[in-house]
Model the fold of this input.
Amino acid sequence: MEKPKDSQRKKVLSSIEQLQTSLSSEQNASLEGYKNVKEYVYKIVKSKWFQRNWTVENLELKNGEPSVVKSGTTLTVSVPEQGSVSEAWVLKLFAHALSEKEDEPAHGREFCRTYLSLVQHFLGKEASENLSAAYKQFGVKTRFKRVMSAEQIKALKERMMKLRPWEKAHKKAEAVASA
Done:
C-alpha cells in the first residue's frame, strides 16, 4: 500500500523549528556524543509515563545514522558516535517511530499528536504550549478526522433539513416541477 502524500511536512517542520528557537538551553539541552544520547533514550523509555502509553519489551541501541524504528515491541535506536543532537530532535525521532502507520503520512495527525505529547511530558508544559501555538500558526492538523457511518450521515442530513426550512421548500418545489 502506498503512503498518502505528506502534505503537512513543511508546516510541521516550520513548527518544530519555531519550537526549538523558543526553548531555553535548559529546556532543550544539546546532547553531546553517544553516551549522553543513550542516557536520554533510556530516560524516555524507562519512564512510567512512556511505558503506560507504548509497549516496548526490547530496546536496541546502536551507532549509526540517527533513527528510531519500532517493530512490534522492539525499539531500535541508532545514534551518531560523535556530534550533538537536541532533546527535541530525539523526541521527533521517537514520534516518528511510535506513530508509524502505512495509511498515515510521515507528518500526519498521529505524528503531530504523538510529538506534542512527548514534548509536553519530557520538555514541559511551556514547550508544549509553544509547539501547540506553532501548530496553530502554521495550520498543522492534529485532530483525527471524524468518520461517520451511513446511518450517522443520514441522521445528520435529517437534522440539517429541520434547521434549513428553505431547502425543504426548495426540494418540494423541485419535486413538483419534475412531476
Notes: The chain has eight helices and five strands. The first strand starts at residue 30 and ends at 32. The chain has a mean pLDDT of 84.
